[in-house]
UniProtKB/TrEMBL annotation:
Family, similarity comment: Belongs to the ABC transporter superfamily.
GO molecular function, one term: ATP binding
UniProt keyword terms in alphabetical order: ATP-binding, Nucleotide-binding
This protein's record includes keyword Nucleotide-binding: yes
Entry annotated with the keyword ATP-binding: yes
Pfam families, sorted: ABC_tran
Residue intervals of the ABC transporter domain: 13-244, 263-506
Segments crossing the lipid bilayer: none
InterPro entries associated with the record: AAA+_ATPase (IPR003593), ABC_carbohydrate_import_ATPase (IPR050107), ABC_transporter-like_ATP-bd (IPR003439), ABC_transporter-like_CS (IPR017871), P-loop_NTPase (IPR027417)
Protein name, UniProt field: ABC transporter ATP-binding protein
Length: 515
């Protein structure tokens, strides 16, 4: 139950005429926004709409070019996140602000006051983790964690500070349906206790479930203020992107043909400190189908991707078979030459070198696959190919041949997926294809995956977004603690059943176990 947010007094926080200019780019253009105590307020917009800039201004990370911030009716100047936190703001960034070499507990402690000892943090961490269903090991090094586990640290770190305004950026992207609902109950309770929440999400049904008000940005400008409960998700998406966002077209049902990927009895020890071991993985992906792999972050998705891509090698060559060739003992370049393509979870730093230009990133990825045909790709050809990817996949990038780090997250994701799809691979394995991207970009990426399977490729999608898997997958399995469940047709799954598998709860005794 949300608090009564009728404006009996000044808003808890009010942004007036906020603008931010970077040279010729106006990232925010005179934006007004007010949030009452206890209100859960959504901030919506496609990638590049100005949401991140606006909340970074509110949190003291960057200074506005114009405008002012009022806190309980009085002007404040926030020159740093330290000042913002002292005022009562807490923020969970989509892109994490963590120290890789420190432990979970140390990363939490470093953001808190000196009164918090590591022993106190460990104790409170256990309480918060249990209450919110966000499991974390306090002494585990951050560099060993998946993206989802890192986000959990950010959420818990904020909640330990008892914020008066909590800013959440894509907080449920790593949660099961049951955990997400648990979080929603927690947010409703925080709201009823008077904590205001600014909620940023591309999952519009979540917004409709949680929020009574929403501010929509497009191109750095205010577009609309709405009650999301009174609009459909499609209507809201249309306001965000400026035109109607259609559903993914599936066309004729996929007709699977021969096995393009076969994984038999694949087991691997953990790849690092506390990493997840893989235990007897069996998986088949056929030409012309999409196979979905669901699971909570940290249960072996990253390790499975590394084993399929060749970043980690199996003990037995026959453990991984691509296009009829045993390749468990060969590297990623050899697998690319068999017609496979791979898109890892981390787009900046893993899928793309941040300081390299888009053409150079294309060259790096395509060169190994082209060896068998031409020996090498000239950089000029890579530049032409990069331009084709930008055009085909609607990548909104600076003119010329920009560095990968110059693109927004959603546009870089479209580029790296387009870079692999444009090769027309026999097999594509992609990890978290639409994590943190807007509705329009997600729809384009999902459509591209469906179309690729329709052309006869085998596609394996590892995702924590169940809506995504139910939309595109033909068959699906769940990974939990390094073990893979039965691979079943998508119409034999329910979201509740998937959620229970993700939590490790045994399903009915009659479930099939053949792949």
């Amino acid at each position: 139950m949300q608090a009564d947010v009728s404006p009996s007094g000044p808003p808890l926080v009010e942004l007036k005429g906020i603008s931010k200019r970077y040279g010729d780019l106006l990232a925010n253009d005179g934006i007004n926004l007010a949030i009452q105590p206890g209100e859960i307020h959504a901030l919506l917009g496609e990638n590049g709409a100005g949401k991140s800039t606006l909340v970074k201004i509110l949190y003291g990370v960057i200074e506005p070019t114009a405008g002012e911030i009022l806190w309980e009716g009085r002007p404040v100047f926030l020159s740093s996140p330290v000042e913002a936190r002292a005022l009562g703001l807490g923020m969970v960034f989509q892109h994490f602000s963590l120290f890789d070499e420190l432990t979970v507990a140390e990363n939490i402690a470093v953001a808190l006051s000196d009164d918090w000892s590591l022993a106190t943090v460990r104790s409170k961490l256990g309480d918060i983790s249990q209450a919110y269903g966000l499991a974390l090991e306090p002494d585990r090094a951050v560099w060993t964690l998946s993206a989802g586990e890192r986000q959990r640290i950010e959420i818990i770190r904020c909640l330990l500070q008892n914020p008066r305004l909590l800013i959440l950026d894509e907080p449920t992207s790593v949660l099961t349906p049951q955990e997400a609902e648990h979080l929603f109950v927690t947010l409703d309770k925080l709201s009823a206790d008077g904590c205001a929440i600014l909620y940023i999400s591309h999952k519009l049904e979540e917004v409709r479930r949680l929020c009574r008000s929403a501010t929509i940005l497009r191109g750095g400008r205010f577009v609309a203020s709405i009650d999301p409960r009174e609009r459909s998700a499609r209507d809201i998406a249309a306001l965000m992107v400026g035109n109607e966002v259609g559903e993914v077209r599936t066309g004729t049902p996929h007709v699977p043909k021969g096995e393009m990927l076969t994984v038999r009895h694949l087991s691997m020890p953990s790849g690092g400190l506390h990493g997840q071991a893989l235990d007897d993985i069996n998986l088949i992906a056929k030409a012309g189908e999409i196979v979905g792999i669901a699971g909570i972050a940290g249960n072996g998705q990253s390790e499975l991707f590394a084993a399929l891509s060749g970043e980690r090698l199996a003990d037995k060559a026959e453990a991984v078979v691509i296009a009829g060739k045993s390749c468990g003992g060969v590297d990623i370049d050899s697998r690319r030459r068999l017609g496979a393509a791979f898109v890892p979870e981390e787009r900046l730093g893993h899928a793309a070198a941040p300081t390299h230009r888009l053409s150079e990133n294309t060259l790096i990825s395509h060169a190994a696959a082209e060896v068998s045909r031409s020996g090498f790709i000239l950089l000029n050809a890579a530049k032409r190919l990069a331009r084709a990817i930008i055009k085909t996949f609607d990548v909104r990038a600076p003119d010329g041949d920009p560095q990968a780090r110059k693109l927004s997250g959603g546009n870089l994701q479209k580029f790296v997926i387009g870079r692999e799809i444009i090769r027309h691979p026999k097999l594509l394995v992609v990890d978290q294809p639409t994590w943190g991207v807007d509705a329009g970009a997600a729809r384009l990426i999902r459509q591209a995956l469906v179309d690729l399977a329709g052309e006869g490729s085998a596609v394996v999608v590892i995702s924590q977004d169940l809506d995504e898997l139910f939309e595109v997958a033909d068959r699906m399995a769940v990974i939990h603690q390094g073990r893979l469940s039965a691979l079943k047709p998508i119409n034999e799954w329910t979201k509740e059943a998937v959620g229970l598998e993700m939590l490790g709860v045994a399903q009915s005794q009659g479930a099939a176990h053949a792949v």
